[in-house]
Amino acid sequence: MATLRDIKNRIKAVQNTQKITKAMKMVAASKLKKVQTRMLDLRPYADKMRDVLISLAKGADREAHPLLAYRARKTVEVVVVTSDRGLCGAFNTNILKSAQTCIDDYKKQGFEVSVSTVGKKALAYFKRRNVSLRNSWTDISGSVRFINAEEIANNIKENYIEETFDEVIVVYNAFKSMVAQTVTLAKLLPLAPIEEGEEGSAPESEAADFIYEPSMEAIFDRLIPRNVDIQIYRSLLESSAAEEAARMSAMENATRSCNEMVDKLTLQYNKARQASITGELMDIVGGVEALKE
Amino acid sequence: MAEKLTLDIVTPYGHVFTDEVDEVVAAGTEGEFGVLPDHVAFLTTLKIGMLTFRKGSETGYIFVNWGYAEVGPDKVTILADSAERAEEIDVERSKEAMKRAEERLKQAEKFDGARATASIERAASRIYIAGQK
Fold it and tell me: Which chain A residues are within 8 Å of B28, Cβ to Cβ?
């Protein structure tokens, strides 16, 4: 049976934990707000850019730019975006599970798979797994900047052109709402035409013959690499926003659990106190009775 | 037969402008070009400069800093690195940026001349456009 002092100490400890989880929730909320506005601002730009490119790619010659080229698929690169820090619920577990399934699928189909990771959690996971880890970036998720995206994108572009891999898939958590993140697998390269039934409206104008100015090559040279940068940047921002949202709800749950725990312990404490008082009273009454005789 | 153009201007920092307009004039890298409804499909790069649109009898001015324009029969989509409507331009800031860039241009060995020149071009264009309203 726990003594009064033991219970009191436990209550204190739980209350301290609660203070921390509460503070973390607040921090996550303010961070979320910041990254969320940036993400929402970028979304239309990224979507539009993808639309433009896809309507272009329909009419254009696939050989016009090395990043457009379809090659026989031999090696698939999977880029996994997680967070650097934990304490955000199932956020990283979900991503890693989906990434692993995706990798296994490709392997079953007979493709080589290489993995690049963003975030410490993905790095820690894939280091111990039987995959060829190509590259890793960490310390990004806390404050995503465009330079980070460019660095990653440049690395991917170079390797794609050098034919290190023939397809690039990005796995990241997309921010859906404050309480929901969806694991998203997006094909980054080669640029694919929109498939039927895929989300996002297909461009209305049919594969029109574009007039290019100054020239198709000049435009492709700038637009296609830029698109890779933007799409990477977008997945980093989405992931970062989703992470903060996940952390917020995880911390909220933790705070609530702490409250329940404190209530339960307080009840136990009061019961124990009552029991000891009753015990003492019994002793006194017994003593008085004994003296009377 | 399209009668209006949907002008859409987006930047990495958000939607700047969306509306139905009658005419758009923008600064392409190969020179200024005008777009009326039913224009042939057309894609071009944009340089730093002014985009003008006409809606009925109203005319609007927008500063566009690099980017791309995709033109279709009933739409003009601008993907710009940054863009501001004339009434949103901070003239004071542009003037300061201009001064700073000019200083840097004088000490060419210490700073990137091309960047300073681009900065001056941006500031001058912003100030000019702000004066249009």
Answer: 213
Say whether B30 and A146 touch across the interface (CB within 8 A).
no
For chain B, give every domain's residue range.
5-87, 89-130
Reduced DSSP (H G I as helix, E B as strand, rest coil) percent helix, strand, coil of chain A, to 5: 60, 15, 25
The Cα–Cα gap between B59 and B84 comes to 15
Nearest to A142 by CA among A43, A45, A44, A27: A27
Integer CA distances (angstroms), A76 to A223, A229, A253, B34, in order: 23, 19, 39, 44
Name the nearest CA neighbour of B41 among B2, B92, B15, B14: B2
pLDDT tens-digit series, residues A100-128? 999 999 999 988 899 999 999 999 999 88
The CATH number given to A34-247 is: 3.40.1380.10
- Ramachandran class of A197: left when φ > 0, alpha when ψ lies in -120 to 50, beta otherwise: left
**Which residue is closest to A205 within chain B, CA to CA?**
B72
Catalytic site includes residue A102: no
Contacts of B66 in chain A (CB under 8 A): none
Cβ contact A165:A73 at 8 Å: no
Q: Which fold has domain B5-87?
A: ATP Synthase; domain 1 (2.60.15)
Handedness of CA A238, A239, A242, A248 (dihedral sign): negative
Range list of H helices, B11-85: none
Convert the pLDDT of each residue in B111-132 to its tens digit: 777 788 888 888 888 888 888 7
